[in-house]
Amino acid sequence: MVLGNFSVGLSVKNFAKSREFYEKLGFCVIRGDNTRWAIMQNASATIGIYEGVIEKNILTFTQGWDGNGQDVDPFEDLRSVQRELKSRGIEFEIQAPMDSQGPTCATFRDPDGNLIVLDQHR
Fold first, then answer.
1. Count of domains in the chain?
2. Residues 75/63, Cβ–Cβ less than 8 Å
3. Beta bridge mates, 117
4. CATH of residue 66
5. 3-state secondary structure 26-91
6. Using CA atoms, how far apart are residues 112 and 25, in angstroms rounded to an integer?
7. Which domain holds residue 27?
8. How would you write the pLDDT of the chain (122 residues) with one tens digit per residue?
9. pTM higher than 0.90 for the full model?
């Protein structure tokens, strides 16, 4: 089972200050509106910074994309990953419809309540 490309979404209090801070660490904006949110990268590390967009930090695993948002083939469909995780006892808050294809998402939480999102854009 492959969870997909990993990124962290950070809920920030001041977008401009956070962007400047992460740029000092070598992160560059690769997409976003640059007023309330941005996806930033430093080599293979990807973070999203969000002001007023998300309540708390989020761990995200994206199926079918690499760290640059480019298609990866082949890739394991999110529904297959969901099925495997459910068989291991993971309880989902939102489940991807098993009778669908293409873009979808599923969510669950770790033991400390951190939100984990499985995402698939294609």
1. 1
2. yes
3. 60, 107
4. 3.10.180.10
5. CCEEEEECCCCEEEEEECCEEEEEECCCCCCCEEEEEECECCCCCECCCCCCHHHHHHHHHHCCCC
6. 28
7. 5-120
8. 889 999 999 999 999 999 999 999 999 999 999 899 999 999 989 999 999 999 999 999 999 988 777 898 999 999 999 999 999 999 999 999 999 999 999 999 999 999 999 999 88
9. no
